[in-house]
Amino acid sequence: MKNPIVIVVLAAALAALGCTARTARVSAIDRLESCTDESSPSDAYCGTLEVFENRKTKQGRKIKLKIVVAPALKRDSAPDPLFVLAGGPGQGAAKMSRAFREIFTRVQQDRDVVLVDQRGTGDSNPLNCEAKEQSLIDLTRSDVFPEQLFRDCLKKYDADPSLYTTPIAMDDLDDVRAFLGYRSINLYGGSYGTRAALVYLRRHPRHTRSIVLDGVAPPDMRLPLYAARDSQRALEKLLADCEADAACRAKFPALSMKLKALLERLENNPARVELTHPRTGVREPVNISRALASGVIMSALYSPTLSSLLPMTIQQAHDGNFQGLLTLGFAFEALGEGMSTGMRLSVLCAEDIPRFTEADAAREVGGSFLGRLWAESFRKPCEFWPKGEIPEDYYKPVESDVPALILSGDLDPITPPSWGDHVAAWLPNSRHIKITGLGHGTITQGCVPQLVKQFLNEGAAAGLDTACLKPLKRPPFFVTHAGPDFAAGAAKQ
User: Fold this and answer.
1) How far, in Å, CA of 239 to CA of 254, rounded?
2) Residue 154 lies in a domain
3) Local mean pLDDT, 10-residue blocks, the chain (493 residues)
4) Is 153 within the bounds of a domain?
């Protein structure tokens, strides 16, 4: 006969273990309330944490950081959540919580997914700065940061933009971690979010269990110094792939020469044309400059899906029809809605722009289709934008034994695999996976979400089987508005 006292003791011990496994999740939820706003999942928990804008003096203005937690679905969930760091800089993770929740639904089965609007983004005292009008003239302006618009925004902010840098924001994030009751966390960063993740890892190593870096933009990248060089690489890959594709080559012969001729023509004589606004249907006269055409091409290269339209768009523009070019640029503009461009400047003007000269920019852009467009556009507002202080060790490589999964799309025009290699050299427990056929950001593609989940559960990347990534490839090129010529593609194979 079993001893009833032993049974009671064992039951109590098992109950205690169960409570311990759920402590972090219950603690986090206890500090939040069910989400009611439209931008957040209805079954998630929302709240805010107030922090000083000036963390050094701990005086003056305070900021409420928006927090969304999608709780783990399993009762015996892992105690360490996944914190998602958005890109840009300027995107708010909590503001995009519905999309991120869908992306990380597999991860949520085992652990909480935490989304925080970084200071200056989303609903955390955002430094927004957008033109009120959305005419074609606004959409086709050549300057990425129109000076007068940003001078006007500076006057209206209830903020000190010099206090919205990455190191300060990552100290905010650690406050959120502590507020929610987590001892250690995992980090996923995409694009600029990879920089944020590395900065958090350096500043709070004891609280970092693992990191996932998707499209690496490290602190020493000096955005946008290498944008022209890296986007030229992506464009050359696209042109070569079109030439190697029977249908694309037949429909758009000598595409590289036509693009060169188009850009030279627009540089010397911008086209004055009447086009239809893709959203309103209103026709307006606009100027099509080389800077505008180059910017649209650069933007489309971010997404292999959008870039599948580029050969046709380049051909049409070469022949004098710029409607497709405008529509393609508008599609990318829509993807970037919700970007807090003032916060973006606070980061770049403090952390990147001061670290390269005009001579550096001229050297790096030589011979590229993008030219000096981005470098010059980003430098101009930094002449008057408030600049924050950056720690002396900020630009040194981040060295750590923390497990790291590094993901790079081979077609990425802004954070190509070379940047992943650069960071991996200092992370001995890292694995860098370079994925053919993908562009900027890989987390939504193929089996990447499953690999991320496995990495987080195992706490190591060495055992990941990447065979599932082999089917991924560049989407077929559009040869007409109806889509790709699948028959030609099948014949080629």
Assistant:
1) 9
2) yes
3) 37 36 56 93 96 98 98 95 97 97 97 98 96 66 79 96 98 98 98 98 98 98 94 98 97 98 96 85 89 93 96 97 90 72 97 92 89 82 96 96 98 98 98 98 98 98 97 96 67 43
4) yes
Nearest to 100 by CA among 86, 79, 88: 86
Neighbours of 273 (CB within 10 A): 15
> b/e per residue, 341-360, with b = 16+ CB within 10 A?
bbbbbbbbbbbbbebbeeee
307 in any annotated domain:
yes
pTM higher than 0.85 for the full model?
yes
- Judge if 246 and 340 occupy the same domain: yes
Output the CA angle 328-334-336, nearest 5 degrees: 110
Q: Identify the domain containing residue 390 by its residue range.
A: 128-162+228-396
Alpha-carbon distance 166 to 203, whole Å? 11
346, 120 Cβ separation under 8 angstroms: yes
194 lies in the same domain as 312 = no
Sign for the CA dihedral angle at 162, 166, 167, 173 comes to: positive
